[in-house]
Amino acid sequence: MKTHTITFKLIALAFIALVAVLLFKPFYKAESSTFPGLRGFSQFATTSAIGFSAVPAITMFNSNETCNSRVITTRGDTGIMIAFSDPTLIKQTAGEIGSTTLSGAKGFWQAPSTTVAYDAGIYGCGRWTGFAGVSTTISVQEF
Question: What's the predicted TM-score (pTM) here?
Answer without folding.
Answer: 0.66
